[in-house]
Amino acid sequence: MLIVRNLTKSYDGAKVLSGVDLEVNRGDFVALLGASGSGKTTLLNCLIGKEKPDGGEILFDGVDLAQASWWTRWRMSKHWAVVGVADQLNPNRTAYRNVVAGRFRHFSFWRLLLGGKPSEEEHMRAMDYLEQVGLLDKALMKVEKLSGGEKQRVAIARALSRGAKLIIADDPVAHLDPRSAESIMESFKKLYQRETVTVLCAMQNIDFAERYASRIVGLAGGRVLFDIRGRRLTAAERHKLLS
C-alpha cells in the first residue's frame, strides 16, 4: 500500500529525515514512535503533501507521490485521511453533519450546487460509522459541545465516510485524558483488526504502542531505528528511542 524509500528532508541545512525507509501494508496498525524532534511529524507531512521531500520515493498504490503532479496527488488523496487536526471539523455542525461532509468529494458538481443533500444510504452509512466509534448517541450534538476525545472519534468516523484506505494520525491522543485516549486507541485497533483500514499513527506514548499497535517503528534523528511486530520493547530498544 505505502512504501517509503530513502526519504530525506532538511531545513536550513539541518537534516530532519536522513534516508527513511518504511513499508505499510494493508490492515496494519503502525505506531511510529519517537521523541520530540525525531522527524515523525515531518515524515507524515511529506506523506500527505504538506512538505516536499528533498529526495526519495513515496509510493502509494504504485504511484510516486514525491514526483506526482498536484492533480495526481489531489486525486489520490481521497484514499487517505488525516486525524488529529481540530480544524478539520466544523464546530457549528453536528457530529452527523461533519461525518456526512466527508462524502462531499464523491458528489458531482451539480449535486453540490443543489445543496448536496445526503441520500438515505449515505445517511445510514454516516450513522453506522458513528456507531463504530461509539458516538451514535451524540450524532445530533454540535461538535463544539463534544469532548476532545469525542471530537477525535468524529474525525475517525469522517475519515471512514470518505472511504479512506489509510488513516494517518499525528499524536491524536496528546492532551486527552487517559480514558479518552484509550477510547481513541481502541477505535484504531478495531479498524485494523477488520482489515478494512490501515492506520499509521505517530505518538510518544510507548505503552499505548505496545498495547494496541500491530507494528512498532522507532524513529530517532530522522532515521528508522527498528521495525518490529507489536510487543513490549526491550530495555535496549527503549534506550535507543529516548537517547
Descriptive tags:
243 residues; 35% helix; 26% strand; 6-stranded mixed β-sheet; 4-stranded antiparallel β-sheet; Rossmann fold; 9 helices; alpha/beta
Could you give a short description of this structure?
The protein is globular, with a radius of gyration of 18 Å.
What would CATH call the homologous superfamily? P-loop containing nucleotide triphosphate hydrolases
CATH fold name: Rossmann fold
How many strand units?
Answer: 10
Which class in CATH terms?
A: Alpha Beta
Following the backbone from N to C, one meets helices and strands in this order, namely EEEHEEHEHHHHEHEHEEH
State the separation between the terminal residues, measured CA to CA: 32 Å
Mean pLDDT: 86
Indicate the low-confidence ranges by residue numbers. Answer: 108-113
Characterise the protein shown here:
Residues about 110-115 have low confidence and may be disordered. This protein has about 240 residues and is an alpha/beta fold. The chain is about 35% helix and about 25% strand. The strands form two sheets. A six-stranded mixed β-sheet has the order 6-7-8-3-9-10, with helices on both faces. The protein has nine helices and ten strands. It is globular and about 50 Å long. Helix 3 (about 95-100) packs across helix 5, helix 3 (about 95-100) packs parallel to helix 6 and helix 5 crosses helix 6 (about 150-160). It has one domain (about 1-240): 3-Layer(aba) Sandwich (Rossmann fold).
